[in-house]
Structure formats: structure tokens, C-alpha cells
């Protein structure tokens, strides 16, 4: 278990929608990711920390994420409360075509904890941009998942391989990759400090 601290991080849950349950996506890794995200969400809610749900509204005709398809709905494990902020995107990165960056800066939310789907697509795109924009980012690796993918040479790569390579691309340059238990431990320190105060 690694040790780190943050002050009042914002939780960014990316594309936790039923679209990814469609068989067309193929095999995935981290079958427990939804429960991990639910645990993170519960901890944020308990402490009253800021959080944003990102929803992907695809404009592609055959996408399971289209607004007129059942898959556009959020997964039940991470269903937003009526009072919680939902931001809609139409590209891979949650920063493109949205007011996410301006909102984060306006409210002083410069520390981000990210989880969601898929690791190699919207999660990686969002984390890369967040890092480039100067935000401090922690990525909950067990709160993310992706799918099998065929590489440029025609070789099938497992979801676990694709996931691991995305994390390798991100860690240390755009974010700090860590386990959800480490994030929850750091949150516990925030709660303890607030109690002592």
C-alpha cells in the first residue's frame, strides 16, 4: 500500500454507463470495477467532497452510447443523485467541448481522482489532458476497466494487457496510478483531520 495525501479532491467518474455491457465490446478486465467505483462514490458522498459524473452522448449512428439507446443510462452502482453534477461529452476527453476545465478552475478543484471506463479510451484521454492542463490527478486503477483489442499487427491483446499499457503510459507523467484502497485511506486521513479540528 502506498501513502500520499490530498486536501479536498474531486471525484471524476467517467462514462459509467450501461452501454459498456453490450456484448459488442468483447471481454473486459476488472469485473469488480463497478463496486470499486461505488465504494469511492459512497466515500465522497459521506465526506461531502465534490464529484462530477461524466456521461458520453455519442453522435455515431451505431454507438451503444447514443442518447436514444438504453445504454446511455448510468449503471445502477454509480447512479447520480439528483443533487450531483452530470457533465455531458461527445468526444473521448471530458475536457473537449465541455465547461469542465473552467468549472474546475473557478471552484478551485485542482486535485482530481479519476475512475471509469474505458481505461484505454475516455479515461486515458481525459487523464492525459488533465495532466497537461496542470491538474493533480490520481487514477484508481481497479476502478477502471477496458476490453480486448486487436493491435496494428493484427494480434489480439487481452483487456488486462491493454489496461496495463494505458496505465504505463499515464503513470508518473500525467497522473499517479494507485489502488482504490490507497485513495480511501487518504480520504480517511481527511476525515480524521476534520474530526480533530
Automatic annotation (TrEMBL):
A GO molecular-function descriptor: hydrolase activity
Keywords tagged on the record: Hydrolase
Keyword Isomerase: no
Signal peptide region: none
Domain Isochorismatase-like residue range list: 10-160
Annotated organism of origin: Chromobacterium alticapitis
Keyword hit for Transmembrane: no
InterPro entries: Isochorismatase-like_dom, Isochorismatase-like_hydrls, Isochorismatase-like_sf
The protein's name: Cysteine hydrolase
Pfam families in UniProt: Isochorismatase
CDD domains: nicotinamidase_related
Amino acid at each position: 500500500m502506498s501513502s500520499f495525501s490530498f486536501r479536498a479532491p474531486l471525484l471524476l467518474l467517467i462514462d459509467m454507463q450501461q452501454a459498456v455491457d453490450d456484448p459488442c465490446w468483447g471481454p473486459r478486465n476488472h469485473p469488480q470495477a463497478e463496486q470499486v467505483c461505488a465504494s469511492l462514490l459512497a466515500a465522497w458522498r459521506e465526506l461531502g467532497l465534490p464529484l462530477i459524473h461524466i456521461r458520453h452522448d455519442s453522435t455515431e449512428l451505431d454507438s451503444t452510447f447514443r442518447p436514444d439507446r438504453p445504454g446511455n443510462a448510468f449503471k445502477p452502482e454509480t447512479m447520480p443523485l439528483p443533487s450531483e453534477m452530470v457533465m455531458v461529452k461527445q468526444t473521448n476527453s471530458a475536457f473537449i467541448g465541455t465547461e469542465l476545465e473552467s468549472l474546475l478552475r473557478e471552484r478551485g478543484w485542482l486535485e482530481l481522482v479519476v475512475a471509469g471506463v474505458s481505461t484505454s479510451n475516455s479515461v486515458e484521454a481525459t487523464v492525459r489532458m488533465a495532466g497537461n492542463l496542470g491538474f493533480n490527478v490520481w487514477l484508481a486503477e481497479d476502478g477502471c476497466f477496458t476490453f480486448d483489442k486487436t493491435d496494428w499487427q493484427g494480434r489480439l491483446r487481452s483487456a488486462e494487457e491493454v489496461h496495463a499499457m494505458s496505465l504505463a503510459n499515464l503513470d508518473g507523467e500525467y497522473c499517479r496510478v494507485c489502488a482504490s484502497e490507497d485513495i480511501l485511506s487518504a480520504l480517511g486521513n481527511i476525515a480524521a483531520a476534520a474530526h480533530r479540528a
